[in-house]
Write a structure and sequence with these properties.
The structure is a single chain. The protein has 92 residues and is an all-alpha fold. It contains 4 helices and no strands. The longest helix is centred in the middle third of the chain and has 15 residues, at 32-46.
Length: 92
């Protein structure tokens, strides 16, 4: 690739995300810049993001309340599925 045909793009990214991306890129033996270049090249050629982007599912109010209860030390631990069903009032 001729130097005159190269453009520089500057992006802002969280430090920890960059660090993890660089580690992953090194693990597969591909420089991070090459991976970014591959993404942009494919996006330019196809006019679409080459992977799925979706909003992560968020727990509903009931599940969030249960998570909060467990994280604050509440709730009840169960030794088995049968015990969990009993605590939850589910007949097995």
């Amino acid at each position: 690739m001729a130097v005159s045909s190269v453009e520089i793009i500057t992006v802002r990214i969280k430090k920890d995300v960059k660090k993890q991306a660089m580690e992953n890129a090194a693990a597969v033996g591909i420089p991070l810049a090459s991976l970014i270049n591959a993404f942009v090249t494919k996006f330019a050629a196809e006019g679409r993001v080459p992977f799925e982007i979706s909003v992560p599912q968020r727990p509903n109010k009931s599940v969030r309340a249960a998570i909060d209860e467990l994280e604050s030390g509440g709730g009840e631990r169960c030794a088995s599925i049968e015990d969990m069903y009993r605590v939850a009032g589910i007949k097995s």
